[in-house]
From TrEMBL:
This is Enoyl-CoA hydratase domain-containing protein 3, mitochondrial. The keyword 4Fe-4S does not apply. NCBIfam families: PRK08139.1 (NF006008). Belongs to the enoyl-CoA hydratase/isomerase family. One of its GO terms (molecular function) is hydro-lyase activity. May play a role in fatty acid biosynthesis and insulin sensitivity. It comes from Neptunomonas qingdaonensis. Coiled coil: none annotated.
């Protein structure tokens, strides 16, 4: 494991901790590359049914490593940075298992994008969110992609145009995070949610997550047609048959994850 990201596993939950605490876990090219590599490995690991992403130190993620970008000064490096970040966010969405953002401290710019890209997000009371690029002359255009898909148009534009930070309660009201938790309880709460989800069939989770993002982009009738087909395919898998039998028999299911 790279020193940039630490991985721990327990009860089907893989936790990836961004470990650039001195720079508020800013997304250097190296860190993004390692994170993509880790996500690829996790997608093939049948023992993993949930992924949690969190940050080391005082904050979750402050966005791109602006010093690294300025030191380069090359358009090709900027293009590669934004392309790599976009690939990383899309990999989170395409991952077979759910991804949870556990947020403390700041989640700004591409860090806010990272929260918006995850399937679920839980925030400490002290957490702050924002897309402040407009304040330094660099509009948060790529964070806008994830943000505008996670919250409403006017909420997205408010964050993008003002560049102001919002607190965790406001983020929950906007729908950017699922729930605000006391700082001291955040680890335990996220672990509880992750463990609960990890108790389900990995195959079923993968089918459902994929269908969720596919149907969102379709017209209503097409979405129903697509999901009707998905449910037909889902009910044919071993875990669905096991789950239904277990429900009827009033026993706990034994998943094969297939």
């Amino acid at each position: 494991m790279s020193e940039l990201i630490q991985r721990t596993d327990a009860n089907g939950v893989a936790t990836l901790t961004l470990s650039r605490a001195t720079s508020y876990n800013s997304l250097s090219m190296a860190l993004m590359t390692v994170l993509i590599d880790q996500l690829n490995l996790l997608d093939e690991d049948i023992s993993v049914r949930v992924v949690v992403i969190k940050g080391d130190g005082k904050g979750f993620c402050a966005g791109h490593d602006l010093k690294e970008m300025l030191d380069s000064g090359e358009e090709s490096f900027y293009e590669c940075t934004f392309d790599t970040c976009s690939q990383m966010m899309q990999r989170i969405v395409s991952l077979s298992v759910p991804v949870i953002a556990q947020v403390h401290g700041v989640a700004t710019a591409a860090g806010c994008q990272l929260v918006a890209s995850c399937d679920l997000a839980y925030a400490a009371e002290s957490a702050r969110f924002g897309t402040p690029g407009v304040n330094i002359g660099l509009f948060c255009s790529t964070p806008m992609v994830a943000l505008s898909r996670a919250v409403s148009q006017k909420h997205s534009m408010e964050l993008l145009l003002t560049g102001e930070l919002i607190n965790a309660v406001r983020a929950e009201q906007m729908g950017l995070v699922n729930k605000v938790i006391a700082d001291s309880d955040l680890d335990a709460y996220v672990d509880g949610v992750a463990t609960l989800i990890a108790s389900k069939s990995r195959k079923t989770l993968a089918i459902g997550k994929k269908a969720f993002y596919e149907q969102k982009e379709l017209p209503l009738a097409d979405a129903y047609a697509r999901c009707s087909r998905v449910m037909t395919e889902n009910i044919m898998i071993d875990d669905a048959k096991e789950g239904i039998d277990a429900f009827i028999s009033k026993r706990a299911p034994t998943w094969k994850h297939c």
